[in-house]
Design brief:
single chain, alpha/beta, FAD/NAD(P)-binding domain, Enolase-like, domain 1, about 30% helix
């Protein structure tokens, strides 16, 4: 994780230190942990124990390699501790609250719905601690045979890393230090109390008023949660919309849903300054300019979700000839090898695709390339992703803008959820699927789904693309009725209808006419 952080007492980064957070720490950074004695030359030394580092270490050890794993923060990385796991626990609770408020639409009377935020967060901590043993120092050491070192790893020579005063020798090394929240350069922000994904899950009381700086996936997921829990949420963005990486029509569906939830969007804005009114847990005022007018908003808590930066400092990269950029991270080639041929990099520190599943598959690639002289290419990976707002947005392959820029002759097939029976019965008809295909062959080039369970639905498209299955072939796959996945089969039907040319239609008409005689 972040090599810049002070790791003198990791308990200070988790609050409250109740039974669940104590159990978490016992697994991912045990207080009484004793580093092993370095065991000769390691096949692989892995720096960073987030998703990429853990998969690299476990996979390499599983095929007989001698592996050392170094972590200065918490094993499990962002995903377990301050990312995917806690955020999805919050999202599930927020969805239940939202569903309960809509129960009357289904003829179910629930009475007034209230949220006990303290219990929501206690559940989050309990579930996170329950998942932690899979990523624990004990499991990796005792079950998987990995030498686990808890401290800051720094390259000291062409084939050496130092951690806690000990020198580890390696044949190959992997950097998997991840990323951390990027803090925008806004006057007064550094001196004001603010939250990031590293601290927001420590809250035990719901802020009555919350401002979110940034309209990307992290900011939108959490903004919707807090609004549904009862906060008055305002989202700031320099852009004219949310989720800038997604298609505008898909992002608009999400924005409309969040506006109905009550989220206030302050778009096309320029930040002027942030003023604090005391220390921690005190209000802050954001001064901004919009349409040439200077305005102010005072809130009880400020969440900064303005992007991520790679953790590249404090690793001694200069000593081993590993080139990097503070914004884009460590430079790697298509085989994920750095500018030092003995050192590879995976995960958020080396790619713009900052997803746990991406780090996982990068790690698998690196195991083959570093240990078995493989030549697997990162560019061959098919990368789906999802944002877990309500509705969800998921994507795989190329966007329409990509196809236009590359001059590819394509067709687009669009199917709305509002004619999908299961969506109608569930009361969730907002959304659509949009599939891009090669015009002549029907080969699927990319797809976007916005709607309920889009993150699950996109996998069917990903499987078809990986298998080289055209969109028309999906129409012949029987789907259970009624399911949301039928929208994918219906997209295949749309494609097949385009193959019914006027000539073919004329032949069909003649044939059916003959049968009526």
């Amino acid at each position: 994780m972040d090599a810049d952080k002070d790791t003198s007492n990791w308990a200070d980064f988790l609050a409250p230190l109740d039974e669940y957070n104590s159990a978490l720490l016992d697994h991912v950074h045990p207080r009484d942990w004793v580093d092993p004695e370095p065991d000769g030359r390691y096949n692989l030394v892995v720096i960073g124990a987030g998703a990429g580092g853990l998969v690299t270490a476990a996979g390499a050890a599983g095929v007989g390699a001698k592996v050392a794993l170094i972590e200065s923060h918490l094993l499990g990385g962002d995903c377990l501790n301050i990312g995917c796991v806690p955020s999805k626990a919050m999202i599930s609770a927020a969805r239940v609250a939202h569903t309960a408020r809509r129960a009357g639409d289904f003829g179910v009377n629930t009475g007034e719905v209230s949220v006990d935020f303290g219990k929501v967060m206690e559940r989050l901590r309990r579930l996170r601690a329950g998942i932690a043993p899979v990523d624990s120092a004990e499991r990796f050491s005792e079950e998987l045979g990995v030498d686990v070192f808890l401290g800051r790893g720094t390259f000291t020579g062409k084939d050496t890393v130092e951690v806690n005063g000990q020198t580890l020798k390696f044949a190959k090394a992997v950097i998997a230090t991840g990323g951390s929240a990027a803090i925008p350069d806004i006057e007064g922000l550094a001196d004001a109390p603010y939250l990031t994904n590293a601290s927001v899950f420590n809250l035990t009381e719901l802020p009555p008023r919350l401002a979110v700086l940034g309209a990307g996936p992290i900011g939108m997921e959490l903004a919707q949660c807090f609004q549904r829990f009862g906060s008055a949420v305002s989202v700031f963005s320099r852009r004219d919309g949310i989720l800038p990486k997604e298609d505008r029509d898909a992002a608009q569906v999400v924005e409309d849903s969040m506006r109905r939830d009550g989220v206030n969007f302050i778009l096309n804005t320029t930040y002027k300054r942030v003023d604090s009114h005391g220390g921690e847990n005190q209000p802050v005022t954001i001064t901004y300019e919009q349409a040439g007018e200077e305005k102010q908003l005072t809130v009880d808590a400020l969440l900064v979700a303005a992007g991520r930066k790679p953790n590249v400092h404090g690793l001694g990269l200069e000593k081993v000839g590993v080139e990097y950029d503070e914004r884009s991270g460590i430079q790697v080639n298509d085989n994920l090898r750095t500018t030092n041929p003995k050192i590879f990099a995976v995960g958020d520190v080396a790619t713009r695709y900052q997803f746990t599943h991406m780090a996982d598959f990068m790690a698998r690639l690196v195991i083959r390339n570093s240990l078995f002289f493989g030549r697997d290419k990162f560019s061959d990976l098919l990368i789906p992703w999802a944002t877990y707002t309500d509705p969800e947005v998921a994507h795989v392959g190329l966007y329409e803008t990509d196809l236009q820029q590359q001059g590819i002759d394509y067709s687009t097939f669009h199917k709305s959820f509002d004619h999908l029976d299961r969506a109608i019965l569930e009361g969730e008809t907002e959304g659509f699927i949009k599939v891009h295909t090669e015009k002549k062959s029907g080969k699927i080039l990319g797809a976007t789904i916005v709607g309920p369970h889009a993150g699950d639905l996109i996998s069917e498209i990903s499987v078809a693309m990986k298998a080289g299955m055209g969109l028309g072939s999906i129409a012949s796959v029987i789907h259970p009725y009624p399911t949301l996945a039928e929208v994918i089969r219906q997209s295949g039907d749309l494609y097949n209808r385009t193959r019914l040319t006027p000539t073919v239609q004329k032949v069909f008409n003649q044939l059916t006419a003959l049968q009526r005689r």
